Amino acid sequence: MTRGIRHLVAALIATLGLLASAGIASAHPLGNYTVNRAIGLAVGSSGITLRYVVDMAEIPTFSEFQLIDRDGNGRPDPTEVASYASAACSAVRANLDLLIDGSTVTLQARRTPQLSFPAGAGGLSTLRLVCEFNARVNATSGPRTITAADGTDDGHVGWREVTISAGPGVVIETSNVPSISSSAELTRYPTDALQTPPDVRAGTAAFHLTSSGLSGPGAEIPAAPTQRSTADDPLAALISGELTPAAAVGALLLAVLLGAGHAVSPGHGKTLIAAYLIGSRGSVRHAATLGVTVAVTHTAGVFVLGAVTLGIGQFFVPERVIEWLSVASGLLVALLGAGLVIRAARGVTRKASHADPHAHPHPHPHPHRHPHRHPHPRYAPQSLDLRRRNVITLGLVGGMVPSASALIVFLVAITTGRLLFGLLLIVAFGAGMAAVLGGLAVLTTALRGTIRAPGSLAAHPWAGSAAKSLPLASGIAVLVAGLGLSIGALARFA
């Protein structure tokens, strides 16, 4: 079995797992955009040791790699690695505040910084930097306090933690942070904290020296990983390996399946799209337009974000752009819902006004009968037909937030010289998303037609009343959900 076929089989297995789980499980511990930081403080009678660990995911590492590889040959040599690590740890130390009993303590470099590049998704690297510092502690009896705070703010989202443990000759009395890292210094992230990772940037503890030499439990230093769990990303795996015609065709088909699996995972406004289509009148043509818009928007978003990451990645925070796109997506949903509410309300109002009886009294009696014909304006209910611009807006909602996996494929394609193949994979991935969301539109339209057919549930009086209120109820649901999405996205900026 060739290497390309092995990669394809591995990707197929991962794809089947993804589709079976319907997006519940994810291969990414915290996401390909994150920069995670941990402070490990050990207080001893002879001094303080502070370990500062940085764990960068694939996309920020890709940008940082351009700073490390100064000669641009794609392989950082020991001199480049040492120079970058030293400068990075100096920047870390400048942003650290260490206080004992309220007084600032000077940190000194303890040993040479450790910089490694664990393998990540699609052949990209991640980055792990370990800086170690120490500081002197004056031997003073009685209770004392120590505070460590990290002022680093690079704009990236990620895990932030602080731990304070007791070394020889010290007992920790109280502390507002744990003594042992729950993530093993960013090597094993707890699965129950992935949705809401900690954002702890400072810790304080009260301690005292003891002549007995006893201390609290020391923190074990975990070994640096050689490979991340993000390395099993199924879409990114398709870009690597030998590129034979059979493997290329199979990879493109798998990319379509992965796009479909990505679309059925939580998000992408599927429920909102269904609610909007229920409250309006769509057609198969609308469904096709929706699918094409999703594919084009998603693919264009990946290309633009990837190009910007390549050009100004050092000064650019991709996840912030994605968060703003999420805000915009929610606002678009809310706008669609508001329009649906207004149109439905107008229809109800006009229908109610037309239902008022009107008489035509004659000023003089007519002793004889004669035809009485004059034009009556007929009521035309407010049309709730799905408009093309609204279909396009639905497509923007479904595809405007690019996936991290597709962005990684783009970056790998650039660095490996497989740009055309990478672009085709991204297009195929977007086509899979479009097929699911467009299919949802067709299914919703078909179900709505079946319900309204003669002899169906719509024939019952109660069903008629419910059908009249359905557009308004759908509009309110879409409006509220859109506002909720925007508020939730804005909350992540805090």
Task: Note down, in words, how this protein is organized.
It is globular and about 85 Å long. It is of the alpha+beta class and 494 residues long. The longest helix is centred in the C-terminal third of the chain and has 37 residues. It is built from 12 helices and 11 strands. Strands 1, 2, 5, 6, 7 and 9 form a 6-stranded mixed β-sheet that branches.
Index terms:
11 strands; alpha+beta; 494 residues; six-stranded mixed sheet; 12 helices; 14% strand; 48% helix; five-stranded antiparallel sheet
**What share of residues is helical?**
40-55%
Question: Structural class of the secondary elements?
Answer: alpha+beta
Shape: globular
How large is the radius of gyration? Answer: 31 Å
The number of helical segments is: 12
Main pleated-sheet profile: 6 strands, mixed
* First-residue to last-residue Cα separation: 50 Å
Q: Helix-strand pattern, N to C?
A: HEEHHEEEEEEEEEHHHHHHHHH
Percentage of β-strand residues: 5-15%
Q: Any low-confidence stretches, pLDDT <50, length ≥5?
A: 7-28, 213-218, 356-360, 372-384
Kindly state the number of beta strands.
11
**What is the assembly state of the chains in this entry?**
single chain
Query: What is the mean pLDDT?
Result: 75
